[in-house]
Specification:
With 123 residues, the chain is α+β, with helices and mostly antiparallel strands. It has two domains: 40 residues, no CATH class; 52 residues, no CATH class. The protein contains four helices and five strands. The protein has a three-stranded antiparallel beta sheet, covered by helices on one side. Strands 1-2 form a two-stranded antiparallel ribbon. The longest helix is centred in the middle third of the chain and has 19 residues. The termini are far apart.
């Protein structure tokens, strides 16, 4: 057995429910194995965590130019809309001429980046 294979991790523990999962391919560290197990686990808590991770990724992709505090605010608004604590039509001006618009469609939070661009001329 090569040293590379010996140091690989084939089993990860879901950080949400504690179930062990056999990974389809080995991970380099136990932490990576546990992260992959959490992402692959079918438990309800794991599904929630994966949703939060995807939400974080999408918001960072759509709004890469805002700071961490604004990202936290956007995630909180998305959570509140998903849980129907607040409703559609929510807009937040996150930068000059940039608005984050939220709505709930078929149980999924829709997030739009709207940029106001005006052109004007006097003749």
């Amino acid at each position: 057995m090569s040293e590379t294979t010996f140091n690989m991790f084939n089993i990860g523990i879901c950080k949400c429910c504690g179930q062990s999962r056999h990974l389809s391919s080995p991970a380099a560290t136990q932490e990576d194995a546990d992260q992959r197990a959490t992402q692959e686990c079918t438990c309800i808590q794991g599904k929630t965590v994966r949703g939060q991770m995807e939400e974080r990724r999408v918001l960072q992709e759509i709004f890469p130019d805002v700071g961490d505090e604004v990202q936290d605010l956007l995630r909180e608004v998305a959570r509140m809309i998903r849980e129907e604590q607040i409703y559609s039509g929510t807009s937040i001006k996150v930068a000059e001429n940039v608005v984050a618009k939220f709505s709930l469609k078929k149980g999924v939070v829709s997030i739009v980046r709207a940029e106001k661009v005006e052109q004007s001329r006097s003749i």
